[in-house]
Amino acid sequence: AEVVIVPDAAHAGVLVADEIMHLITRRPDAVLGVATGSTPLPVYEALRERVRDLDVSRLRAFALDEYVGIDPDHPESYRNVIRREVVEPLGFDPARVRVPSGALDGIETAGDAYEAAIAAAGGIDLQILGIGTDGHIGFNEPGSSFASRTRVKTLTQQTREDNARFFDSIDDVPEHCITQGLGTILAARHLVLLAIGEGKAEAVAGAVEGPVTASVPGSAIQLHPHVTVVVDEAAASALR
Ligand code: F6R
To answer: What are this entry's molecular-function GO terms (predicted)?
Structure first.
């Protein structure tokens, strides 16, 4: 992987937004893989100014994951987060932006349907990734198969604790999610993994230079030929 160390989150946002601009000026119908969580927010913010004078109506986007069983109208459902942070501020066509369905009704087929939609779009050109403190990418928790495709997973206690900040209490954090698999993520043409802060240092080191192991799902990126890792000094601090 190419590792780029930036001074702070804002610089990370600008760098990745410029990379996305490069892609969408070349391919106005590009397919973006978008992540939720806190880390990519500066990317979307930087992108906002950059796409102002651009026709983004043909862009497509696929989110990484969703909580299973969450009320779709809950402000922290990823469907709503993507609408609030990506679709509305950037002016994307909501019909061309998809989030896996976490509805209990139909959950058995939701993964395959999502995979089919990604395939029909021609695959993902650029996938934005964060990383969990437990090493997850998407919601592929430790032990996930490198060949996995979009499916239902159980969130680890660590992830539920990390994400409790978005909810009233940890008990409100759903226990299950539907997430693109590691195989799905590895099929994207360019992976851009962002991590900011000391809390991510160990996960970043494991992903970038640790052994390739299902215990650190982020280490799957080492199997991909085109990866950019954007980190601040703190998140880079455990790299050798
Ligand atoms: C989000 C996702 C997760 C997050 C990760 C880091 O769609 O799939 O892998 O990227 O949990 O979250 P933050 O950025 O909030 O630290």
So the answer is: glucosamine-6-phosphate deaminase activity; identical protein binding
